[in-house]
Amino acid sequence: MLMALGMFVFQTRSVPYQQLRRTTQWRHPSQSRVGDRPAHQFVGPGDDSISLSGTLLPEFTGGRVDLDEIRDMADQGQAWPLVEGTGKQYGLWVITRVDETSSTFFRDGAAAKIEFTLQLEHVDDARTDLIGSLTTSAVARLAGAYA
Length: 147
Prior knowledge:
Blueprint: E1 3-5, E2 8-10, E3 19-27, E4 30-33, E5 36-40, E6 44-56, H1 64-75, E7 80-84, E8 89-105, E9 111-122, H2 134-146
Antiparallel strand pairs: 1-2, 1-7, 3-6, 4-5, 6-9, 7-8, 8-9
């Protein structure tokens, strides 16, 4: 297991990302002063985002179905715990963007190569009311399977 977002597990057979990029910001607003440089004040943490990107080869790894499962999670608008395979806990994260580029197609139009990027944003870990429901995501997957 590389990482888990809620109950979705990133692994070599599902969605193996090849790059993890994390950007963390802190807020230091400034106040203009006459005859001097602006004064800055630390007011706390800012945005914290993670970008996961990689290439899927559906014959060997996950494919469009796995990316659609991530989209179903994002459609709920809920936060999900993010845990690295090492056991490191990152807190609660929401899915804000999924980019997908398909290329190298088979005769039936199915992609042999899918490049993807997932954008995650850290939310307030104390907001447990934002945590996604396993039941909701399972029902959404079942509903999609039988539609």
